């Protein structure tokens, strides 16, 4: 059954708005990931490495090729301290 011509304008607006929303979401996610593709199915090891990379470079997706860690890395521990009562 053909689509009535009155619905073409409305359906095209719906399709365009879904496209704008999807593109906007993709742009925002890529900006949050430093312009790199989105990661899927992260396991504990990958999360731990992301925390380490953040401590080394200041970015979750940043990586360093320097074999020697900066001096701040020695006191920037991943272990959180808890207050003793």
Automatic annotation (TrEMBL):
Q: What is its main location?
A: mitochondrion
What is the recorded function of this protein according to its Swiss-Prot or TrEMBL entry?
Answer: Accessory subunit of the mitochondrial membrane respiratory chain NADH dehydrogenase (Complex I), that is believed not to be involved in catalysis. Complex I functions in the transfer of electrons from NADH to the respiratory chain. The immediate electron acceptor for the enzyme is believed to be ubiquinone.
Membrane topology designation: Single-pass membrane protein
**Keyword set for this entry?**
Electron transport, Membrane, Mitochondrion, Mitochondrion inner membrane, Respiratory chain, Transmembrane, Transmembrane helix, Transport
Which ranges are annotated Polar residues under compositional bias?
Answer: 74-85
- Outline the segment boundaries, as ranges, of region: Disordered: 56-85
Where in the cell is the protein located? Mitochondrion inner membrane
Q: Which family does it belong to?
A: Belongs to the complex I NDUFA1 subunit family.
Species name for this entry?
A: Pseudozyma hubeiensis (strain SY62) (Yeast)
Record bears the keyword Manganese:
no
Q: Which residues form a coiled coil?
A: none
> Is Membrane one of the keywords?
yes
- Which InterPro entries did the record assign? NADH_Ub_cplx-1_asu_su-1
Write down what this protein is called: NADH dehydrogenase [ubiquinone] 1 alpha subcomplex subunit 1
What cellular-component terms does GO give this entry? mitochondrial inner membrane
Membrane-crossing ranges are: 7-28
* Superkingdom, taxonomy of origin: Eukaryota
């Amino acid at each position: 059954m053909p689509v009535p011509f009155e619905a073409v304008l409305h359906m095209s607006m719906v399709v365009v708005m879904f496209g704008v929303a999807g593109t906007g979401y993709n742009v925002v996610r890529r900006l949050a990931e430093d312009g790199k593709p989105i990661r899927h199915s992260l396991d504990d090891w990958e999360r731990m490495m992301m925390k380490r990379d953040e401590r080394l470079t200041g970015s979750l997706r940043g990586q360093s090729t320097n074999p020697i860690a900066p001096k701040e890395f020695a006191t920037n521990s991943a272990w959180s301290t808890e207050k003793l009562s």
